[in-house]
């Protein structure tokens, strides 16, 4: 899980994840969206892949990247496990203000 948080901590990597929400992209298409070197983008993609946030598949000379939402689902489930259970039902009188 440490790799996951490390990957999500960087704004460039979060932007890459946002790009991949619209669909799969190859490394060159991702690199075109940033004002940094291709090796730098490649490093970011590698960290995202190591964290399990993206999957890569080689097709010819290109490497295509796609989101792996399974890891995000697991993270969300883990985070939600810290949420306190709601103790009062929604229609409970204690949830309404009574004006006298």
TrEMBL record:
<dbReference type="GO" id="GO:0003700">
    <property type="term" value="F:DNA-binding transcription factor activity"/>
</dbReference>
<dbReference type="GO" id="GO:0003677">
    <property type="term" value="F:DNA binding"/>
</dbReference>
<keyword id="KW-0804">Transcription</keyword>
<dbReference type="InterPro" id="IPR051081">
    <property type="entry name" value="HTH_MetalResp_TranReg"/>
</dbReference>
<dbReference type="InterPro" id="IPR036388">
    <property type="entry name" value="WH-like_DNA-bd_sf"/>
</dbReference>
<feature type="domain" description="HTH arsR-type">
    <location>
        <begin position="1"/>
        <end position="87"/>
    </location>
</feature>
<keyword id="KW-0238">DNA-binding</keyword>
<dbReference type="InterPro" id="IPR001845">
    <property type="entry name" value="HTH_ArsR_DNA-bd_dom"/>
</dbReference>
<dbReference type="InterPro" id="IPR011991">
    <property type="entry name" value="ArsR-like_HTH"/>
</dbReference>
<dbReference type="InterPro" id="IPR047796">
    <property type="entry name" value="SdpR-like_repress"/>
</dbReference>
<protein>
    <submittedName>
        <fullName>DNA-binding transcriptional ArsR family regulator</fullName>
    </submittedName>
</protein>
<dbReference type="InterPro" id="IPR036390">
    <property type="entry name" value="WH_DNA-bd_sf"/>
</dbReference>
<dbReference type="Pfam" id="PF01022">
    <property type="entry name" value="HTH_5"/>
</dbReference>
<keyword id="KW-0805">Transcription regulation</keyword>
């Amino acid at each position: 899980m440490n790799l996951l948080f490390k990957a999500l901590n960087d704004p460039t990597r979060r932007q890459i994840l946002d790009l991949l929400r619209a669909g799969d992209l190859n490394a060159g298409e991702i690199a075109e969206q940033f004002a940094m070197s291709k090796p730098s983008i490649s490093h970011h993609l590698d960290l995202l892949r190591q964290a399990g946030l993206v999957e890569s598949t080689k097709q010819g000379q290109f490497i295509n990247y796609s989101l792996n939402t399974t890891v995000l689902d697991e993270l969300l489930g883990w985070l939600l496990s810290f949420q306190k259970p709601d103790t009062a039902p929604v229609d409970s009188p204690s949830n309404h203000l009574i004006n006298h």
